[in-house]
TrEMBL record:
GO terms for molecular function: acyltransferase activity, transferring groups other than amino-acyl groups. It comes from the Bacteria. This is N-acetyltransferase. Residues 1-42 are annotated as: Disordered.
């Protein structure tokens, strides 16, 4: 299984992260693909992050730097060139990885706070390049395969993390998610915004029925984030995984498409409303 770090997630290094060995993933618990990662939440800024439900196409409209190709938005930036965009949120752009991402990708993966709940250590630029190369012809939603999304800041185009999704090969209406965020971007609500966007994409575009995530039981920040996006804590596995020389415990989370749809709408930050980036009427149900 995979370990979510403080900003939780799984990565496309395929599958859930295993304690010493296995595929990588993001920070949350992550499979080789990804685990939820470990950052300390900034309560003030996390509370200001918008709730994003359903499809995100409204954020992709009227973008002068974009054009459409085969149903996907094509965006041009200095880092990634002309690259298709899977979806956008008010502050983030989620796109495929490109070769130019290898340096920034490796830099945050090798950080001790990111490695803490992952299956890798001493991550190298060669590993980063190999993972990015493995994503070249991949596409999201293929049963049995992890897909890794690059997470880019819309303002400035910096690579700030990654998201991951693996559709179940036995039941293709279900998938596991993961995510990792570079430590310098922790505390700004980006993790919450990114995972909400991924849920909207998985349910609204890929038409999945059920999404799951697994995190280290000690990764309180990742668990809190998954709670806040509306995922249900379904299980606690006591000392079920051997990781970095010790037995550890994990928490399992899940959400159904109808549960996501029931909260469909946007809970907005007043500053974002004034910016004109997004409009919404129905807040996420509380309680």
């Amino acid at each position: 299984m995979t370990r979510l770090q403080s900003v939780a997630g799984r990565s496309a290094e395929h599958g859930r992260p295993r304690r010493p060995g296995g595929s990588e993933v993001v920070t949350a618990h992550t499979s080789p693909a990804c685990r939820v990662s470990g950052m300390q939440p900034d309560r003030q800024n996390e509370a200001r992050a918008p709730f994003i439900r359903g499809t995100l196409s409204n954020y992709q409209q009227n973008q002068p730097s974009c054009r459409k190709n085969d149903g996907m938005t094509i965006y041009t930036s200095s880092r990634s060139g002309s690259t298709p965009v899977h979806f956008e949120t008010p502050r983030l752009r989620v796109r495929p990885f490109v070769a130019a991402d290898a340096g920034a990708f490796t830099a945050y993966r090798v950080h001790p706070d990111v490695e803490r709940y992952q299956s890798w250590s001493n991550y190298t630029i060669e590993q980063g390049r190999a993972l990015i190369d493995s994503m070249h012809d991949a596409r999201p939603g293929v049963p049995g395969q992890w897909y890794q999304f690059a997470l880019e800041e819309r303002e400035g185009g910096a690579l700030i993390g990654d998201l991951a999704l693996k559709v179940d090969d036995a039941e293709p209406s279900m998938a596991e998610l993961g995510f990792t965020l570079a430590p310098e971007y922790w505390g700004n609500g980006y993790g919450l915004e990114a995972v909400q966007g991924l849920l909207g994409y998985a349910f609204g575009t890929l038409h999945l029925r059920r999404l799951t995530a697994v995190t280290d039981a000690l990764n309180y920040s990742a668990a809190l984030l998954l709670d806040r996006v509306g995922m249900r804590r379904e299980a606690y596995f006591h000392e079920n995984i051997f990781f970095e020389g010790a037995w550890g415990s994990e928490c399992a989370f899940a959400i159904l498409d109808r549960e996501w749809a029931a909260g469909c709408g946007v809970q907005l930050d007043p500053l974002m409303t004034r910016s004109g980036l997004v409009t919404g009427k129905k807040p996420r149900p509380q309680g």
